[in-house]
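Let's study today's protein:

:::
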Amino acid sequence: MGSPAQDDALAQLFAAELGMTVVAPAYRLAPEHPFPAAMDDLYATLTWLHTNAEALKVRPDRIVVAGASAGGGLAAGLTLLARDRGEVPVAFQLLAYPMLDDRTVGRTIDGANHRLWTAGSNRFGWTSYLGREPGAADVPVYAAPARAESLAGLPPTWIGVGTFDLFHDEDVEYARRIAEAGVPVQLEVVPGVFHAFDNFRGAKVAKAFLASQLAALRRALA
């Protein structure tokens, strides 16, 4: 589910506040189009953006990859792919409660306060995206970025997640490993909130979460 249009307000806010160009690609969705369809679409968009940077008035050395939830997992996978191919430099990645590790499926890690994304939805999401049962030894790192053996060479990173988010543990661990690899990383852990809490944009905690992202992007684009 989902389309770029649902994030128009956020894209417009980033553009207005930061003076940046925002490209929101429409990628093929699972389960009709399992991995690597979405990743192929996103990498094609990234290379198009870099190739046409001058015409689009984009600085090719200041390209940011960003996403939330499943989109955050895609953003992390895309950044890994860009690092490994070495064709397009990514200056920064911004990952809001990203979905990073298929191996969490089947674990009892959610409770009464883990809303909107539960163990059941996690199994459905990963099975749809991978096109098979999650957890196999050969799942590609670009599909499940937490599986990457090395996170060295990634760009500076912002990761945000709530304590009642099913993705909390894997996101905190990903941030720890990025820092361990010598990459600057900011981890924003929000106490007492569940997955996608920032969709309630009027809440103070959602405004603070957005402000942290804007500040991180402002530093990255400087």
Summary: The first strand starts at residue 64 and ends at 68. Residues 198 and 206 are 4 Å apart (CA to CA).
